[in-house]
Amino acid sequence: MTPQSDEDEVWRQIVASFNDTAERDSADQPWPDSENVPAEPTRRVVKPSEEPAAEPDGPDEPEGDTDPRDDGDDEDEGHFVPPPPPPLPKLDLPTKLAWVALFGGPAYLLVAAMANWHMEGWALFTAVAAFIGGFVALVVRMGDGPPSNDSGWDDGAVL
Fold this sequence. Notes:
Blueprint: H1 3-16, H2 93-114, H3 121-140
Helix pairs in contact: 2-3
């Protein structure tokens, strides 16, 4: 027999036994001891409106709803407080003017249109030119060149 025919025979057996039920019941299969999970002690929840029933306290039972592993510091457990953010960078005068032009031009056009003001041609041109000029100035000043420090070919996420 060739290896191909052996493989074909194995596949035929797999397909033929696809819908067959398992021969052994799962209860007969051994359960590994490493899979056994120790049972936790049951805790009794007492509602404030109910009176707790008198139960004999055994030496192995914890008192009330307390957990012996509880340190009382659950308030801070798992709560992340981020460090304060770094201060915003100081902007120079050309960058400030570019931001004012970028938002000021469309803001003037919007206010003038909502107030139904008559706008001269030079005012429309100035507002549109301020918007375009502010955008271009910010893009040019963006500084998309390589980083000043040489940290290799992979800088990761550089923010």
